[in-house]
Design brief:
There is one protein chain. The chain has about 350 residues and is mainly beta. The chain has helices at about 55-60, 125-135, 160-170, 260-275; strands at about 10-15, 20, 25-35, 40-50, 50, 55, 65-70, 75-95, 95-105, 115-120, 140, 150-160, 180-185, 185-190, 200, 210-215, 220-225, 235-240, 250-255, 280-285, 295-300, 305-315, 320-330, 345. The strands form 5 sheets. Strands 1, 2, 3, 4, 7, 8, 9, 15, 16, 20, 21, 22, 23 and 24 form a 14-stranded mixed sheet that branches. Strands 11-14-13 form a 3-stranded mixed sheet, covered by helices on one side. Strand 5 (about 50) and strand 6 (about 55) form a beta hairpin. Helix 2 packs antiparallel against helix 3. The termini are close together.
Length: about 350
């Protein structure tokens, strides 16, 4: 159980000569986030331009300077996020100087380095991912259900795009859903929802606000699979794949490719239905759990219902000691397999 009364944050800057400097006292607006469509976690804060160990903070903090955030109960601190400075902005206002910074973790480089790669038919998922991460010069940990892939040709592709392509291919072949994140300088490729402690958030105890919305404006409920167009312009209807037609008929046409079997076309049609269902959005604001990350699984109870969710995006606000999350529903038995013994009430 996290005790908010004892919760503390600590910011450490590592200078160019390797000295660790505690900058907690001069950091304002400290926060860190993991966005749904962002690969890297990001840290943001504002420093007053004062001296620390004989140097002003703008002399110490430079592009790519490492910053590490710790959190704890005042006695035992643990690292929760780290990054290197990617953006800086020095400002003078009312005779005061301050510096705004933004940091990104080790995943940032994966999205900003291109390479050409070729993998022959039959390469395993692990082999491809290890090759890419080694080429990127990253420390890594891979925890996936391995599979094999057809020929992969990457030309002028970012490392992140190569990894995403392999994980997408693996998911479509039934290998599970995985995501990428960095922890203590190591890039992890792991299944979502593998956190040992599943925090429980209850509207009666530790939830500030919960919001749920549903959007059916772009829903698809029927996909008509048609064959190749004949010379006279006629196209044969080869299959009709239906979803939840109780919502009405919202039909799209899928044209089967020349070398695509009907089964493959129907699978593609099913994917269209899956990706274009009713869009559910759940957001939660609660007291901060500094160690909670994107991809973790939590349990939520409110007047809207009770269930397990995955953290889709998260923003930690250290001064307010709160966090805001966007959530994905965990629906399959595989995804909710962990027992309540692993569940702990959040603050």
């Amino acid at each position: 159980m996290i005790n908010l009364a004892k919760l503390e944050y600590r910011g450490i800057v590592i200078s160019s000569d390797g000295e660790q400097l505690d900058v907690t006292g001069i950091a304002n607006g400290l926060g860190w986030s993991e966005g749904e469509k962002e690969l890297a976690a990001k840290i943001s804060c504002k420093f007053a331009c004062v001296e620390v160990n004989g140097k002003t903070i703008d002399e110490i903090v430079q592009p790519m300077t490492p910053i590490i955030i710790y959190a704890g109960d005042g006695e035992d601190f643990a690292e929760v996020i780290r990054g290197n400075v990617t953006k800086m902005e020095l400002t003078e206002a009312n005779s005061e100087f301050y510096i705004n910074i933004e940091c990104a973790d080790e995943c940032h480089a994966l999205r900003h380095n291109q390479e050409d790669k070729y993998f022959t038919d039959g390469h395993s998922s692990n082999a491809i991912l290890e090759d890419v991460l080694k080429e990127a010069g990253a420390e890594y940990r891979i925890e996936i259900k391995d599979g094999t892939h057809g020929k992969k040709v990457y030309r002028q592709k970012y490392y992140s795009d190569m990894i995403a392509d392999v994980l997408k291919d693996l998911k479509e072949k039934g290998g599970g859903e995985y995501f990428i994140r960095a922890r203590e300088g190591v890039i992890e490729i792991i299944p979502r929802g593998t956190n040992e402690t599943i925090y429980h958030f209850d509207i009666d105890d530790n939830v500030v606000r919960v919001k749920e919305s549903f959007d059916a404006s772009k829903v698809v409920t029927k996909v008509k699979v048609v064959g190749k167009e004949k010379s006279e312009g006629h196209q044969a209807i080869e299959s009709v794949v239906e979803g939840n037609t109780e919502l009405g008929t919202r039909q799209v046409i899928y044209r089967r490719k020349d070398k695509e079997t009907l089964a493959e076309a129907e699978a593609a049609a099913k994917k269209i239905l899956d990706e274009n269902g009713v869009q559910r959005k759940t957001s939660l604001e609660a007291p901060d759990v500094p160690t909670l990350r994107k991809g973790d699984k939590i349990r939520v109870r409110s007047s809207l219902g009770e269930g397990y969710f995955f953290v889709k995006s998260i923003r930690h606000d250290a001064p307010q000691m709160k966090m805001t999350m966007e959530l994905d529903t965990a629906e399959s038995e595989y995804e909710i397999a962990k027992t309540d013994e692993a569940t702990e009430n959040a603050p």
